[in-house]
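Field reference: sequence -> structure
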Amino acid sequence: MQKSPLQIARQSYQPKMPVALQGAVRLVEGEKTHSVADQEEIQKLFPNTYGLPVITMEPVAESKVESQKSKAEPFNVGVILSGGQAPGGHNVISGLYDGLKALNPENKLYGFLGGPSGLIDGKYQELTGAIIDEYRNTGGFDIIGSGRTKLEETWQFDNGIEICKQLGIKAVVIIGGDDSNTNACVLAEYYLQKKCGIQVIGCPKTIDGDLKNEMIETSFGFDTACKVYSELIGNIQRDANSAKKYWHFIRLMGRSASHIALECALQSQPNICLISEEVEAKNMTLNDIVEDIVKVIVARANAGLNFGTVLIPEGLIEFIPAMRVLIQELNDMLANNEEFTSLDGDDAKREYVKSMLSPASCELYRSLPKGIARQLTLDRDPHGNVMVSQIETEKLLIEMVQKRLAVLKANGEYKGKFSALNHFFGYEGRCAIPSNFDADYCYSIGITATHLIAAGKTGYMSLVRNLTKPAAEWIAGGVPITMMMNMEKRNGKMKPVIQKALVDLNGKPFQYLQAHRADWADPVTSYIYPGPIQYYGPTEVCDQPTRTLLLERGK
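Structure field:
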């Protein structure tokens, strides 16, 4: 395989690790835990994995290391990449492999191909040193591929047991987001009920940044993705400041929370950054959002600046209260609705939808551009929800802003020129070569998972925290997945899921944005140009975590 000079150089990078993981470890158990909400329901659903203690790993004295090694019996582990890609996934697997071989060179690692379906269908590959070395410190999930198959049915669990028995697999590691780790917990509970001796460990992945809580400081991939997007935003802002004639409306990934938009704003200082959680808290309408954008555009135009940047979180439309009601009505209406799917043509479907909506939602639906209204009725995701990534919110806002500015111009209240360009940054950040932070963090997550497995733990998520300190001072351990769970409505039924973390409007990252956004909107341009991810150089350039994490930790 031909490689770029950077690929070749990155293969030799040795990730930095916590001191506790640089030799043999011992596991220290804390107090018993309970779920973040709905304790009784979660405990009933997970009687075997509920209430487990948080685990911290400490180094073992050198004199005890050799005796520990001699006692380690060989075992095999299976690994699954689940859901959307995130930079650093290959390093989790590299850490897992190296950790297993350090415990016993006879240990084997099997990769299930194409995501969770690989476990069900028995599609796998033994991951050897030669394979692992090709993927160290690289982006993507292409070492074994990923998938979005849900592990929910008993027959799926039983198939997994048979495959694991055939391969002599002691534990399955699921690398994924909140839904994938919820599946890991369900799987761990079932395997304990069946007493089949198979452990399940999860690893916190998602570029969206919404898999975090009091124990998980950040999900892996968030740092790299935000640095990639921030570079692109900075480039666009440099262009805008050069050409001085375009407003750039930039939609960023992050359906359920606005962490990416907030982090990118902290890194690049755009003229406007919308935060979905703020829109919801203020009970804003679409018109309110448009009015706020228009005020900034008019103020800059009055200073002779007919250009700027607007950051828009992908999930914005679902956080607008009236839109959320409309979307929920559409989700309920279109769930397994054969009558709707049998209709011929967009006009027939539009009329059908209008006839089924409540009066308020019907009025809102009618007011939307036909293209956006159609996108709201496209195929649903596996949870029965509208696929927000297909809704071009940035185009909707451009169209509405354009109309409002035309009215102001007719009234003599706006004398500027408005030309807009739209962008969506999503896949550009998901498989980038991981930053030093993500390369180090992910490798430590993988090593940590091997120690949880060796100690016989199941139903845990691999945990590495204290992340604003140098890597040597990071703290490794494990957190029970049930500790993060609550009950939510999915496909019309209440189900246990890991609670997503939204942007905290009282938190320091948002408060920093709030304190500075007026200055960034001001005619005196305040853009920052972050530039590309740096892999070599001083630590303040190469190894810093996200601004979000630094602000949250008071730095």
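Note: The first helix runs from residue 5 to 11.
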